[in-house]
Design brief:
11-stranded parallel sheet; two-stranded antiparallel ribbon
């Protein structure tokens, strides 16, 4: 097998031609990548040059560093993924990245999470993606592109028919851009996962939820929707559920960190009695309480046989609701993952979930609690398992794609690149 071009040497040459010093962090990561010649030939490689790396010394990437890096990657066919999260790239860096995206034909995955890219940078990247025909997964999480930046991405989606997963969470999107994205996705046939978490909304009328619901009635491609921190209440839950009675594609619904109460969950429970598509439902950090948990448990015990994962952590549920959920798992064999930490445990609850784990009905890696005994009494401790524990950070002690901490990947609604 012939040896592929040496990325590290090419990077040093690019720095010399641009008359700028090398970034030692980039140099080190390219040297590490050069050791995997076999992987380059067979699968391609993802360059992980994340600024929050705690294993090796980090000098975060600047716009000038990125210029030298993309000069190397421009003619490299075996780099199929680029992870640049938690660096200090600005709109000037976005200019270099946009040019790279226009000319590159091998990159499938790009992570620009939590840089300093603003509206102008969003415009450049979105316009580049109108011409790019290879990128499948773009993560812009945490870049404050604002409402106007969101509009540029909505315009891009009107033209781009390749992108499968787009993450615009924590990007300060506004009502106008959310409605535009929902409108564009209505007939879209390539985007399979969209993250619209934590927009900046200045109305309590839930107009954005209404438009997302209208989109779901028609869209037959989307399988994963993240709708966290939209201040959703009963009206929004009703609109979404009305749409999901007609939708036959959505498998992963994230409604965590909203204002969903016990009465609102009854609407979701009624949906679960008839829905045959949803596999993952994330209701973490709402306020469904005991009554809401009982509604869900009744639907799961008697009717639903498709939901595989339910997250209800931090919902002010006490013994009555948690015991109902544990009982539902005795009759529903499809529900395999359940996350309950942050609720109110008593000894009966601890005993019930301890028995589920001891009997093998609930696998230890499929929940976020672990039983232990002290002086003859049973307790539950928290363990670092969940649907997406590593969404914002990369652990130094384990792989960031660990399936126990990121169960949504193991269930495979939309696989990570």
């Amino acid at each position: 097998m012939p040896r592929l071009p040496d990325l590290h040497q090419q990077y040093l040459q690019a720095c010399q031609s641009l008359s700028r010093p090398e970034n030692p962090f980039i140099a080190y990561m390219l040297q590490e990548a050069d050791k995997h010649d076999k992987t380059k030939w067979t699968k391609g490689i993802t360059l992980k040059i994340a600024g929050n790396n705690r294993i090796v010394p980090v000098q975060r990437i600047t716009d000038e560093d990125l210029q030298a890096l993309v000069a190397v990657l421009q003619n490299t066919i075996f780099v199929t993924g680029l992870d640049l999260r938690y660096n200090v790239l600005t709109d000037d860096g976005a200019k270099h990245m946009a040019k790279f995206l226009e000319e590159n034909s091998t990159l499938r995955y790009l992570n620009l999470m939590f840089n300093d890219i603003g509206t102008s940078g969003a415009e450049l990247i979105a316009r580049a993606l109108q011409r790019n025909e290879t990128l499948l997964y773009l993560r812009m999480t945490g870049n404050k592109i604002g409402n106007k930046g969101g509009m540029y991405f909505a315009s891009m989606l009107q033209i781009n028919s390749v992108l499968e997963k787009l993450d615009l969470g924590d990007c300060d999107l506004g009502t106008q851009s959310l409605i535009a994205i929902a409108t564009v996705l209505t007939p879209h046939e390539s985007v399979r996962a969209i993250n619209l978490n934590r927009p900046l909304l200045h109305s309590q009328a839930e107009e954005t939820t209404v438009h997302i619901a209208l989109m779901l009635k028609t869209n037959s491609c989307l399988v994963e929707l993240h709708f966290r921190k939209h201040e959703m209440k009963k009206f929004g839950v009703e609109r979404l559920c009305e749409a999901l009675y007609e939708n036959c594609s959505l498998r992963y619904l994230d409604l965590s960190c909203n204002k969903i109460t016990r009465d609102d969950v009854k609407i979701l429970a009624d949906l679960l009695k008839r829905n045959q598509t949803l596999q993952i439902l994330d209701l973490n950090s709402n306020r469904i309480e005991d009554i809401g948990a009982i509604y869900l448990s009744e639907a799961l015990a008697l009717c639903n046989r498709t939901l595989q994962a339910l997250a209800v952590a931090s919902n002010n549920i006490s013994s009555k609701g948690l015991l109902a959920l544990s009982d539902s798992m005795k009759t529903n064999m499809e529900l395999s993952y359940i996350y309950i930490w942050g609720n109110n445990f008593d000894e009966a609850t601890c005993m019930a979930f301890s028995e589920l784990i001891r009997s093998g009905r609930l696998k230890p890696h499929c929940t976020d609690v672990e039983p232990y005994e002290v002086d003859g009494h049973m307790y539950l401790a928290e363990v670092s398992h969940g649907l997406r524990k590593h969404y914002y950070w990369t652990p130094s002690w384990a792989k960031d794609k660990d399936k126990h901490a990121n169960a949504s990947l193991a269930l495979g609604a939309v696989s990570e690149y």
